[in-house]
Design a protein that fits this description.
Length: about 80
């Protein structure tokens, strides 16, 4: 016969797994945002991209996104 798992240990194991998964997901999401934002660095210096195109890009992704990314990098966009 198989031993029944201890419910206290089982609960602690599940909580630790869920917390680790949540932390890993958040870390991956943060890294993705940083990598994506690095593609926009210096974009305003590219010939043909002026204030109107930059405004369209910012409006498409959302001004909050650019403010959030700028705060993470330590600079304001």
């Amino acid at each position: 016969m198989a031993k029944k798992p201890n419910p206290v240990i089982q609960k602690a194991k599940e909580e630790a797994y869920n917390k680790g998964f949540a932390n890993g997901f958040q870390m991956a999401q943060d890294n993705a945002v940083i990598a994506f934002s690095s593609k926009f660095e210096g974009l305003e210096k590219v010939p043909g991209i002026g204030p109107k195109i930059m405004e369209k890009i910012v409006n498409h992704f959302g001004r909050d996104y650019f403010m959030e990314v700028g705060a993470e990098d330590g600079k304001q966009k």
